[in-house]
Design a protein that fits this description.
It is a single chain. With 65 residues, this protein is mainly α.
């Protein structure tokens, strides 16, 4: 049996493991994760965050990734 749901309900559900839209510099695991994902050193990631802020999208644009 198929169950129809709205797109909004799917997007608002928190069933998947999604990374936060901002990078928490106080969390070493988060910093390491995003440095790995963006293929930069943790130091370069922190420098980018200090320059453009912790938003993942802004950091990606800044790093050209």
């Amino acid at each position: 049996m198929l169950r129809l749901v709205t797109v909004a309900s799917v997007l608002s559900s928190n069933t998947g493991a999604r990374p936060a839209p901002v990078i928490d510099m106080t969390d070493d695991a988060a910093t390491g994760y995003w440095a790995y994902r963006l293929s930069v050193s943790p130091q370069d990631l922190i420098a980018a965050i200090e320059e453009v802020g912790p938003a993942v999208a802004a950091v990606r644009r800044h790093l050209g990734r």
